[in-house]
Write a structure and sequence with these properties.
8 helices, alpha+beta, WH-like_DNA-bd_sf, Chorismate_lyase_/UTRA_dom_sf, transcription regulation, about 25% helix, transcription, Chorismate lyase, 2 domains, Arc Repressor Mutant, subunit A
Length: about 250
């Protein structure tokens, strides 16, 4: 049995066992896998890394490896652009931690996306987002100051930016543009997301506008852990239906 076949065989057997376990269940350590399957540390580690690549397990520094639960994060023009509402819609819990909140001149890219002049003062926030108490995403958000004047203090009371804009700015925020892709994060993002290994993450950029005026009110860029979130995008005017012949 080659080293490659060995770790893939171990990963396959563990995957079948994990499929019937509850999310959060702890799985065997690398040392225990070495003893159970009679392999070296390299094969045991590669098997766990393969399960992590599949999104089936997650590793927590100093605690071990656990059965993972990955949720679908749906992006659609028909849904309110709210992290909290989207996460809760799939039965998961959501919370956010504010890492930074300040009013500052808009960076060039943010000013362009928001349709304001360079150096125009905007609210800038950086927040760490959690799903079921797991670090899931890091987000930078820029909000035009003419929509709402005080934002930092309000975020300590209401976590949903979408809800705050509705309450304080009387803004009916809708998603008008979105770009999604995957990339390898830099060291700062890896540390913020508590990633034990460098792996591709979802990168989501969005512009939200006021439905009534068409004015851009927020621009955001988020890095989402792919082992916690599966990004799903729905594009189109309606859900396709099947005809009598069984064709869509």
């Amino acid at each position: 049995m080659t080293e490659r076949t060995g770790y893939q065989d171990i990963a396959g057997r563990l995957a079948r066992e994990i499929a019937v376990l509850e999310p959060g269940s702890k799985i065997s350590s690398e040392h225990e896998l070495m003893e159970r399957f009679g392999v070296g540390r390299a094969s045991a580690r590669a098997a766990v890394q393969e399960l992590e690549r599949r999104g089936m397990v997650r590793r927590i520094r100093g605690s071990g490896t656990f059965v993972n639960r990955r949720i679908d994060y749906l992006i659609s023009k028909d849904l309110r652009p709210s992290w909290q509402r989207t996460v809760r819609a799939v039965g998961a819990t959501s919370r956010s931690t504010v890492l930074l909140s300040e009013v500052r001149p808009a960076p060039e890219h943010s000013a362009r996306y928001l349709g304001v002049g360079p150096e125009t003062p905007v609210h800038h926030m950086r927040r760490l987002r959690y799903v079921d108490d797991r670090v899931a995403a890091l987000a930078d958000e820029w909000v035009t100051c003419d929509v709402v004047t005080e934002l930092g203090a309000a975020l300590r009371i209401e976590e949903s930016l979408d809800e705050l804009l509705r309450q304080l700015g009387r803004v009916d925020s809708v998603r008008s543009w979105c770009r999604a892709g995957m990339e390898l994060p830099d060291d700062d993002v890896c540390r913020a997301l508590d990633m034990t290994t460098v792996a591709p993450v979802w990168v989501i950029e969005s512009i939200n506008r006021d439905a009534d005026t068409g004015t851009a009110v927020t621009y955001s860029k988020a890095w989402m852990r792919a082992d916690v979130i599966r990004v799903v995008m729905e594009i189109g005017d309606h859900i396709p239906c099947r005809t009598e012949e069984g064709k869509s």
